[in-house]
Design brief:
The protein is an alpha+beta fold. It is built from twelve helices and 19 strands.
Length: about 475
């Protein structure tokens, strides 16, 4: 989740920077920033069932006593509860303010005269006059209405321009979108860039409607109409789109320059933004296809030649160990654990073979018992470490197998001889392990083996 938040924050910062480019139309700026906000709500892991990751560790002697499950920390739950409480309170406050503003605007409202109704450019939109309205505004989501102050006097051309602006809000579904971005603001109340983005959206929403009006009839009449209502003010709340906002001065300056602007194509720019968003999400999916959980496998042979498995199941997001089973089984005899008291539940199958190989298979389940992801690992304990073999600790993630062999050659003062068909990636973790056992484990996992001939370390594919 932290990685998703960081990734979404980076995209939002890029969108905010792009919104200040001079040749973008207001509706284009709005679309880019809104898409970046939507990224926060997209899933951060697109993981198909049956995919998982493995970390293989071979520590020193394993404790004989079984391990207890790690006690869950209470702090994540406390943080989550505080976040949800603040988010819910903020969203309820936004909804309450919107309902109050609508109620005040509609207090004493009556249908506008037929002459004014005829100037409404969008069918199905009711025009009202109200003494409670401080400025022209489009209200409502399901049943949009335009409300004008009862005392506002405008000529027909001026009124038509104002109504065109408000109907543009209706056509763009601005009241609904404002409620959506208000929900983002409430859910991400701790995020300063989200608040900046919401201010950009509020201004771009009004400027986009200004562009619609100017495109239809030029700026002069529209500016004259705004001059008659610019002293009025209305609460800036979700669900109410008001022509007069706290950016009216900047908007009026921008309106005068609209006829000379040559903005970049809206659809092309938005399409590029959508492709970028999809590409980042898909790239993130590839990086995260390893799954939510990692299994750490440790295996040894005891004095009775039984296999002793020590396994940790770790939540990759929080780093918390959700299970730490310890299994002892004879060679050739599989052992299974079905756990229902962990979150999430899991099924673990292990088996050791007479030739010294061992396998473990982990399935993460949902509450209904369906498999969410699967991990599997192999270990090879074909022979004991050489007496006096140096012990190493190493942590590798997606390292090149050939580079790893060269590194082992440096550690052991042996000259690596690597066959051309030897290739692979290594993701392992060792703690205080004899080097030959570690090398054997790495090579076996990649279908390879080694032989020491004098001062030469020969690595080849298993035939």
């Amino acid at each position: 989740m932290i990685a998703h938040l960081a990734e979404s924050t980076l995209l939002l910062a890029m969108a905010i920077a792009a919104a200040h480019l001079p040749r973008l139309a207001a509706r284009t700026r709005y679309a880019i920033v809104f898409l970046a906000l939507v990224k926060f709500a997209l899933p951060w892991k697109f993981q198909p069932p049956g995919v998982g990751t493995i970390a293989i560790a071979i520590p020193g002697p394993i404790a004989a006593a079984p391990h207890a499950f790690a006690a869950p920390s209470i702090w994540p739950m406390v943080v989550k509860a505080v976040w949800l409480a603040v988010a819910a309170a903020l969203f309820l406050l936004i909804v309450w303010r919107a309902r109050r503003a609508i109620a005040e605007a509609l207090d004493g409202a009556v249908l506008a005269p037929e002459r004014e109704q005829a100037l409404v450019p969008r069918r199905g939109v009711v025009l009202l006059r109200s003494p409670g309205a401080a400025a022209p505004a489009a209200i409502g989501i399901v049943r949009p209405r335009i409300v004008l102050p009862a005392a506002l006097e405008l000529g027909d051309d001026e009124l038509a321009a104002i109504l065109a602006h408000e109907c543009a809000h209706v056509a763009r579904r601005d009241n609904l979108l404002a409620l959506v971005d208000a929900a983002f603001g409430a859910a991400l109340w701790f995020h300063p860039l989200v608040w900046i983005a919401r201010r950009i959206l509020a201004r771009a929403r009004e400027e986009a409607c200004d562009e619609v009006v100017v495109a239809r009839g030029g700026p002069d009449v529209y500016l004259a109409a705004l001059a008659k209502v610019c002293r009025a003010a209305a609460p800036g709340v979700a669900g109410v789109s008001c022509i007069v906002s706290n950016t009216i001065r900047e908007r009026m300056k921008a309106i005068m320059t609209l006829p000379t602007r040559r903005p970049l194509p809206h659809r092309l720019v938005v399409a590029v933004a959508v492709v970028l968003l999809a590409a980042v999400s898909l790239l993130n999916a590839q990086e995260k296809k390893a799954g939510h959980y990692v299994m750490s496998l440790a295996v040894e042979r005891d004095s009775h030649d039984n296999f002793v498995f020590d396994i940790s199941v770790i939540d990759k997001t929080s780093g918390e160990t959700i299970a730490h089973p310890h299994i002892n089984t004879a060679a050739g005899v599989p052992a299974t654990i079905d756990s229902t008291d962990t979150k999430p539940p899991y099924k673990l199958e292990v088996r050791g073979e007479a030739d010294g190989t061992a396998t473990a298979r982990l399935q993460i389940l949902d509450s209904a018992g369906n498999v969410l992801e699967t991990s599997a690992a192999k270990a090879a304990l074909k022979h004991a470490s050489a007496p006096g073999a140096a012990k190493i600790s190493i942590n590798l993630q997606d390292a090149d197998l050939r580079d790893v062999v060269v590194k082992f050659g440096m550690i052991t003062n042996l000259e690596p001889k690597i066959d051309p068909d030897v290739a692979g990636k290594v993701s392992v973790e060792f703690h205080d392990v004899p080097w030959d056992q570690a090398l054997q484990q790495i090579l076996f996992a990649n279908g390879c083996e080694y032989e020491i001939d004098g001062k030469t370390l020969h690595v080849r594919r298993i035939r």
